[in-house]
Amino acid sequence: MTEAQEIETGARARTRRAIVEAAVRELARDSAASLGQIADAAGVGRTTLHRYFPDRAELLAAVGAETVARLTEVHARARVDEGDARAALRRLCPEYLLLGDLLTLLFTGVVPDAVLDGEGAAPLAALVARGHREGSIDPELDVEWVVGVVWAQLYLAWATLREGQAARHDIVPMLVRTVDKAVAP
Domains in the chain: how many in total? Predict the structure, then answer.
């Protein structure tokens, strides 16, 4: 690959990333945001957006893929395979909050539930199942129930943060404590 081709490839990747990031922001603010609004937010023309994403479905698929990638990063940062499962869950909850506007897209269904039901949520479900086996998470609570409790508490925490009702440093300890107490054996 020539230097000019490398520069072009890098520029295309940056433009694509800017469009996906703008889509996340705009769709979190307004799930019906038009492709024109997203293009404006990304600082590109509508024709440029259409070169990367010919239609809304392809853009939403890219946002879904970004969600899965970010969930994977979150699970890695939280070191979900280290220590007991309950301790890993306590590390994971604050990391989930860092997903920011992606949480809004998950909670409002802009990103399909399949992302949460598929590879995006598999590490959380596996973590809960491990907690059941080792006794650190109440085995009388179904895996799906515990996963639902985590997402419900994340919804409350993110909504509170987004509405400016409390600061992150106040919300995180309440989120972690609530989830921890809810799943304790």
Answer: 2
